[in-house]
Every structure is written in structure tokens, then in C-alpha cells.
Design brief:
This protein is mainly β and 55 residues long. It has one domain. The strands form two sheets. The protein has a two-stranded parallel sheet with strand order 1-3. Strands 2-4 form a two-stranded parallel sheet. It is elongated.
């Protein structure tokens, strides 16, 4: 089953992620969309942040 999350903000000064996970297992689709108007110096905006995929 597809999974989709979105972060929609005007400004990021630190860190913003639509999806953040330690581990993703199983079959399927994972989608994260980041819509940001402005990212401050040193800031980060990401759709998907996953440390480990699989088991």
C-alpha cells in the first residue's frame, strides 16, 4: 500500500521532513513531499529521511 506524507511550510530554520524513520521494511511505496518557500542558511528540508531500508 502506498504511503505519502507532505510538509508544507513557509520557512525552515532548522530541520523539516515529511517522513523520518529509523527503518522501513516490507514492500510498497513511500513518498514524502517537501514544499518550502524559504530555507534559512544551515537549515534542511527533505521529503524522506530513512536510516535503513530492509531488514
Amino acid at each position: 500500500m502506498p504511503t505519502r506524507q507532505t510538509v508544507d511550510v513557509d520557512e525552515v530554520a532548522g530541520y523539516a521532513a515529511a517522513v523520518r524513520a529509523e527503518e522501513v521494511v516490507g514492500d510498497g511505496t513511500l513518498r514524502g513531499d517537501a514544499k518550502v518557500k524559504r530555507v534559512e542558511r544551515g537549515g534542511q528540508a527533505v521529503g524522506v529521511d530513512v536510516k535503513r531500508v530492509g531488514g
